[in-house]
Amino acid sequence: MNDNSERKLSAWRPIDTNTFLFGVPHYPEHIEESWWQQDAERMVACGFNTVRMGEFAWHLFEPCEGVYDFSLFDRAIDVLANAGIKTILCTPTATPPRWLTAKYPEVLRVDKNGRQMSHGSRQHADTIHPLFREFSRRITRAMAEHYRDNPNVIGWQTDNELNTSMSESYSDAARAEFQSFCERKYRSIESLNAAWGGDFWATAYRGFDQVVLPLPNAPVHCSPGHVQDYHRFLAHTTMQFQRDQVEILRQTNADWFVFHNMGKLENVDFRNGFASDLDFVGYDVYPFLHEEKARIGGHAYMQASQLDLCRGYAGNFIVPEQQSGFGSQVDFSTLTPEPGEMRRMAFSSIAHGADGLMFFRWRPAHFGAEIYWMGIIDHDNIPRRRFEEAKQVGAEIHQVAEHTLGTTVRIDIGIASAEFDNDIAHKSYPIGFPSPHDDAILLHRACFQRGIAAGFVHPEDALERLKVFYVPHWLMWKDEWSERLEQFARAGGTVIIGARTGSRNTDNHVIRVPAPGETLTALTGVQVEEFGPLAAPDQEALMGRAPTPHGEFTTTARPTEASQRRYRFEFKGQELTAGHCYEILDPSSDVDVLARWSNRFLEGRAAITRRQVGAGQVLYVGTYLTDELAERLTDWVMANGKVEPLIPDLPQGIDVTLREKDGQKLLFVMNTECFEQRLDSVAAGVDLLTDNRVDGSLTLEGYGCAIIDMS
């Protein structure tokens, strides 16, 4: 693998490799050296060809400032290499050593309350600070130079889950760097004041040295434009921090591949430099980690949706960490995958675009903040069912890898995503509405449950590969996107525009013409006459409603008139209740009305419209999705958008995708339930996992998997 920086990012970008990376993160520093050889032999038995190591070992690589010692990892790499296992090294910048933070405490991150972070945890240093960036470059350069000619080091991971523990900084260094960022962007303070609305609340500045960081609730909220630019700044500095390392690694050895393992996706703009600097991205998959989200579709759906979202940022990916046992930190514990479920999750990852996979972790730590984060081997060094299951997965992956590598995941219904500015625009002034992703996930889940090939796609990707493209109320809209959507529709595609799309400009100001703006009005044939918020379908009130850190909404308010003020509309012969938002639409004469509001003062007005554009059509939805509307909209596009499920009449709990290339078609079918399920109307082909012929019907045991070659 080589530098992929010239390859355009796309939901369909494959990884340029002929090797499926299969293995585990490994921590030789956590175990006696006398055990290393046995570990290597057991890894070979599992079919592992790669390990990842070093992400938290800066204190060992550089025990004192400017003094380097790589001997422990040299020996560990040699032991693995002698067994035929290659190594991916990580830049260890997520955990700077104590000598650094003691001598240079100014590099510590500062939170919104002015509290300086402390040594003893991780990601406590400020990646914005110029001095910390310099130390990060030094350790990266020292490691790269030491391993440049080691043939057993094949690639690198930058840092570890950047911004996962904390993504913001309010340090003096952050303020100074933010001021410089603003000056480079706006050039004149007058331009900045205009962009941020400085005449509101006397928030104008006389010079860039006066610019402050947008502290939340100090005492109330800052301008959305100010907040927007701060998060753009955070994303830019995160990209620059990583770029420092990538440039050093590429200059040292052009044959190394470089990637990053994504965590919570906080303040990372993948489509603006971060992902294009990399050969591919990685996503750490822990389906059981977010119990509070299981209600939106279960752990299997969570995994599928997270990986589809990842693929929308940059294309095919690897999974550097995939849950193998239960995970735990001091304040939480996850459920444990049942027998067969670890295997099922592995094939679900491959089904959704993984071209490499590593089970987390080889063995659990006996000390530290994650002593009950289990791995393939247990604390007592006895290999049990997870070890045996890993062996099975390894044998099967090596059996099918030649078929899967180079293929990409089929998407018939694309959902607009991977647009950092729109995610932040929503957060800067949400009005209690769901985020674009929270809205989009309802349509994605409805497709998942029906077996429809759906995924997340940026408007600048190859839209001609889709049949339907849905935009989930992107507040900021670019005119060139309207041109691309019109071309897509004229060629026969179906475009669906969600409420509030295009209602703010890139400065986060409300536009001065009727929504959805000039180019989208020309495309959709509608203007928005009025809009307003509604109580969510499962809530009683508007006031007191706020998004949680995970995007759901909570309310502490008592029931109000809002709980009785339900607005309904009739769509294809069914009356549905709107949630979150209503819009009154004023359609032009060439627009068909598909749904009308059916009660209160909205009665009779257009709620959903359709305009014929060339061989295709453009819909405008004047409300936000609910589960019910997402299901009915999916029914509509199946009937009118030339969309068919990959497997008709899909039973509940079946994860199905299609990976394809140049006529090759691989149908992945995973049973995410613990009981046997039978599927009918399955396409004919050969199951690559069993070599059995499949022709019309397929029975899968609990957590069973099939990969059907339909070519």
Automatic annotation (TrEMBL):
Active site: E161, E321
Entry keyword Mitochondrion: no
This protein's UniProt keywords: Glycosidase, Hydrolase, Metal-binding, Zinc
Any Pfam family hit: Glyco_hydro_42
Keyword Zinc: yes
Positions of substrate binding: R122, N160
Catalytic reaction equation(s): Hydrolysis of terminal non-reducing beta-D-galactose residues in beta-D-galactosides
Protein name per the record: Beta-galactosidase
Gene name tied to this protein: bgaA
